[in-house]
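Fig. S4 source data, part A: sequence.
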Amino acid sequence: MNQSARREDIPGWLTHIVVPGFNLLLAFVLSGILIAVIGENPFRALSLLIKGAFIYGDSLGFTLYYTTNFMFTGLAVSIAFHCGLFNIGGEGQAYVSGLGVALVGLYLGHLPVLIVIPLGIMAAALFGGIWGVIPGYLQAKRGSHVVITTIMFNFIAAALMTYLLVEVLIKPGQQSPESREFAPNIWLPYAHDVMNWFGINMLSTPLNLSFIFAIIVSVLTWGLIWHTRWGYEMRTVGQNPTAAVYAGISTSRNIILAMFLSGAVAGGVGINEIMGIHHRLLLDFTSGFGFVGIAVALMGRNHPFGIFLAALLFGVLFQGGTELSFDMPKVNRDMVVVIQGLVILFSGAMESVFRPHIIRLFVRTRTAIAAPAE
């Protein structure tokens, strides 16, 4: 059996489950060694991490709140990736989406709930999509590389939001660069409030209905990419632009479409943060979620289900890591960031290091098992 035939017969569970799982295991093993070096018990640290993410009081709500943001940014990166684009501008697109929500909340917040909440969601998607489509247009029509332009647009978004919150949208009579609070009509219900409607007691957490919206967007993304003509065209452009041109597929149109959709999905962070939690526009509400979304997409193999699992993992690291730093003072916030970095390193940048060896071991094992039967 030649090498190409062997590669064609590699099962999906090996590349999508075993390889990422092995990389994640290595990241946690190395993290455990680092924790042991500073004089703490790595097994106790792991126990505290899990309890801090799922078991302690309101921990699950916080974990799912972080997961929601990572789902949006991970899906945004994956949509662009399927079209052969590396969108590093999720941070800026999410940031500007908050501006769209804020404009609706500040000037249309008096409208009925059933009108203003859909308007806020559409504004977040529109503003994020516009901030993504500009770099897409520049690549499709002017040849500007989307990696460079999306990085630049992150800085432009930060400067724009600083100016608006200091000079234009700031609440009169205050020093803090933030807008006034929106009318309650545009607030998304919290998960604990929804549970209380059904007689179920739940501790107060930032988790809101954006989590359900993120799941819906995941399903829609799966349907778009793998079950529509537009998704087929985007994947064709991403895998072989030359073949796409010969097939009559417009590469420029699909690049622009993919970047608009990518930015629109990243706008979910604005919905979760501004409509769901803060209820006002403020600086730096994205908190780096857009950049972590790149690692989430890589770990999830750019598939919505994989992205959900990767987003949940980073939600666990963010929330459980916070609790861990409280119970283990030596494992401070900086050490938690190092653990997150190791997960990103092994699951993202070094993903291809161990992948060929695992595949080769699988092929040899399968050949050895099949040889006696022949």
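Fig. S4 source data, part B ends here. The first helix runs from residue 3 to 8.
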